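#lab-general

N.A. 3:47 PM
ok so I finally got the sequence cleaned up, no stray characters, all 331 residues accounted for. can someone with queue access submit it? mine expired

B.Y. 3:52 PM
send it over

N.A. 3:53 PM
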Amino acid sequence: MHTRRTATTTVLGLAAALLLGACANPSDGATTEVGAPGDGSGKTGTSVKINNSPDQNRVTAPKVDAIAATLPEAVRKRGTLKIVNSADASAPLGFYATDDKTRIGVETDIAHLVAGTLGLKPEFTSVSWENIFVGLDAAKYDAGFSNITVTEERKEKYDFATYRKDDLAFEAKKGSKLKIDDFRDVAGHTIAVDSGTNQEKILVDWSKQAEKAGLEPVDIKYYKAASDTYLALESGRIEFFLGPSPTAAYRVASAGKTEIAGTLSGAGDGLQGLIAATTKKDSGLVEPLAAALNEVIDNGTYAKVLQRWGLSSEAVAKSEINPPGLPKTAK
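B.Y. 4:20 PM
back already:
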């Protein structure tokens, strides 16, 4: 199965949806209204208001006793689900509301649905990306909801309950006319990527493939903050940034300074990448999490959450436990 064409369709759909619903800093401090382009008839397109205030009025899901009863006893008695996510602001996945402290986004909303189905109060902690896994290892948190991709390497230490498709996108400066379809197209280019991500693994692997084919390797760059990455992209110090397609499509629609230069699956060639709730291996939580996710998929609240953030194209038909993920990088 060749996934890159599917990923392209997905990210174009995301860009169209987020052109309607992208969320910039609004003048009224509560919502952003973004209009769709007209159809050439002189009429303006439909506009959509996105709530980016701390008062989210989230979609909720009721407790399902039969699923809650399958939780580990310690978690059930505690009454809370300790959720960890990345402190980085990556709209529409996870970012800060207009009060600059309340976390909002699709990841937060899905975690709320799961906690509600399990009859637990969600407790969120935002940390650096690497500390998500450090905290899970130490059993400091129950589950990570932070755009975490299933990979074969991660499956050795963690259990996964999937809830979204994972597609990636190469962003380039607007008007660059650069295009990427496979490893040959990244050869010799300067590309930024976030450390410790599946995007990095794929880019490193593509660079190795380019070298084996007699081409130049990729000049890979790393930045501590997203703002630094985009400043480098806009100034020409890097040619591309490889990251999650929802974030790329959102930025293209809202800021208008970049464009999508290519897309691929977050699991590499031949396999659809998947985003999942992540728990410490054999913690006893993955089965209840998957059951809760399948419940919200079936009752329609999951679809409402994805629609709310313009990510309906990333919906999965069911939550799977530990499906095939991004293969280990070849030595």
